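Give me the fold.
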Amino acid sequence: MEQRCGLVEALPARAFSQSGTTVDTVLVTIPATRPADARPMVWPARDIPAQDAEELGNPADIAAEIVADLRKAVAVFEEVADALTKPAPTTVPGDIEVS
């Protein structure tokens, strides 16, 4: 925050209690611009271990896999749509199913 000339201001206790929350809150103000000598920051700052580059597959194989997955999804959606067009069975006293 200091590097970006930002401000952190504590809000009064229970500031949002009318909305149903009693969590302590702060107001964070971050300027859209930064001083020319400030270095860019990435948040959250953490070290990410180096990983081996993942090899990409053949684009035609990837496309075929995507198409197959989409066909499966469409089939499931069609089953759901078909089920929604049929009247739901009802049960009457005595657990007798009526269609």
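The mean pLDDT is 79.
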